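quick one
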Amino acid sequence: MENSTFKAMIVTENADKTFSREIGEKRISDLPEGDVVIKVEYSSLNYKDALSATGNKGVSRNYPHTPGIDAAGTVAESNCDRFTVGEEVLITGYDLGMNTSGGYQEYIRVPENWVVKLPENLSLREAMIYGTAGFTAALSCYKMIGNGVTPGDGPVLVTGATGGVGSIALSILVKAGYEVVAVNGIVDETDYLLKLGAKEVISIEEADDQSGRPLLRPRWAGAIDTVAGNILSTAIKTTKYGGSVTCCGNVGSAELSSSIYPFIINGVSLLGIDSVNCPVDTRMAVWNRIASDWKLDHLEAITTELDGLEALDERISLILQGKNRGRAIVKIG
Ligand SMILES: NC(=O)c1ccc[n+]([C@@H]2O[C@H](COP(=O)([O-])OP(=O)(O)OC[C@H]3O[C@@H](n4cnc5c(N)ncnc54)[C@H](OP(=O)(O)O)[C@@H]3O)[C@@H](O)[C@H]2O)c1
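structure w/ NAP:
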């Protein structure tokens, strides 16, 4: 098997420091050391993939490189007890596609502890529709709910709700019986957000308090934030007594400024979300919820399927221009 060739996206750094991308051939022996070789059926496209595919050294330091932070497929070779050949598995996070050769190729080789057995009732294709964005959304809901926020406590705010993480978090919460208030994007997407099940849609301005007051009228039982900056500060100071706010992203800002009062007067919890190194028990628990009671009915409505590695180019440009909508998956196998 070591000498068999397969198709891969290869990003190369040129002598003049520019980067070029081609669909070329690799051998299994080119893959990094690892316990499990996986034949990839599907991968997905995330913002990090677009950065890695265009030479962003904050994401991928060394080139030539094959991006793809998500992969789902079947075990082709196993040097561990946990996995057998032919078993269906998925991987999101860890170092896949960052500084380890990623999912935009027909085979990957990874350490066994990165690999999750595909839950029952979820196909490889569906797993990649969720991918890192969907897993992060579900992990945010899991942590907020685990910290005691129940549907009876009142509405939950979702910021960045038109994005990959936000729209899946909104949909999961609606499915779990929560009343969700969604923050619109820069372009008005009210109809889309109402269709996903939001009870109410508010503007970015309404979610971005400029009064400078440390506490505001309590409105939310909890909040799922993907934006950070003043939108996260506003969510924290409008959360009710004992509520929980999760934060996973920084599309608005990398800063967070807050007085201490929401925490010491209202007992609000701020919960950090990391999908990359999330421990395996939590990872399995979240994927099992995704595949069972949180499984969404409208997955196809948010999905674009790209046919083969060649089709990724156009979508990578779109995502870098901020024009991506919903989830893009790529059929590889
Ligand atoms: N912690 C983790 O493990 C983890 C995992 C995955 C993703 N993330 C992070 O989570 C964040 C969201 O990811 P995503 O895939 O959902 O991104 P996305 O699809 O690009 O969506 C971003 C959302 O935020 C909105 N937005 C952008 N800039 C804004 C601003 N200045 N003020 C208010 N809203 C703004 C967008 O609205 P428009 O459509 O109008 O622009 C959109 O609704 C990113 O920062 C990503 O890096 C973290």
